[in-house]
């Protein structure tokens, strides 16, 4: 890795850390639920709170899939942790 890449990566990591602090998010949640990278933070919060109904609703809004498919996907994500 080149020196400019290292400094750019360090700057990006500082920016991400700032965003976590600014929005009051727990950085550990990013890796808590696999397959949630494209989901909003509210989705992970619903999973953390064991609120599967809210998580399914958010999943449907983001993906546009049907109720049965969303329910199966959310239940699988919740079981994987």
Structure description:
By secondary structure, the chain is an all-alpha fold. It has two domains: 1-27; 32-81, no CATH class. Helices cover 67% and strands 0% of the residues. The protein contains four helices and no strands. It has helices at residues 3-23, 41-48, 52-63, 67-79. The longest helix has 21 residues, at 3-23. The relative contact order is 0.12.
Descriptors for this entry?
81 residues, mainly alpha, 2 domains, 4 helices, 0% strand, Ribosomal_bL12_C/ClpS-like, Ribosomal_bL12_C
Sum up the overall morphology in one term. Answer: elongated
- Helicity range: 55-70%
Which segments are poorly predicted (pLDDT under 50) over 5 or more consecutive residues?
none
Percent range for β-strand residues: under 5%
Organism: Dactylosporangium salmoneum
Domain Large ribosomal subunit protein bL12 C-terminal: 49-78
InterPro entries: Ribosomal_bL12_C, Ribosomal_bL12_C/ClpS-like
Protein name: Large ribosomal subunit protein bL12 C-terminal domain-containing protein
Gist?
The chain has helices at 3-23, 41-48, 52-63, 67-79. The chain is mainly α and 81 residues long. The N and C termini lie far apart (34 Å).
Give the secondary structure arrangement, pairings included.
Blueprint: H1 3-23, H2 41-48, H3 52-63, H4 67-79
Pfam families: Ribosomal_L12 (PF00542)
InterPro entries: Ribosomal_bL12_C (IPR013823), Ribosomal_bL12_C/ClpS-like (IPR014719)
Domain Large ribosomal subunit protein bL12 C-terminal: 49-78
């Amino acid at each position: 890795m080149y020196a400019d890449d290292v400094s750019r990566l360090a700057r990006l990591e500082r920016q991400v850390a700032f965003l976590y602090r600014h929005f009051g998010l727990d950085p550990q949640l990013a890796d808590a639920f696999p397959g949630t990278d494209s989901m909003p933070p509210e989705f992970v919060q619903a999973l953390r709170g064991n609120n599967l109904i809210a998580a399914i609703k958010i999943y449907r809004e983001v993906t546009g899939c049907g109720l049965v498919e969303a329910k199966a996907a959310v239940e699988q994500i919740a079981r994987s942790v």
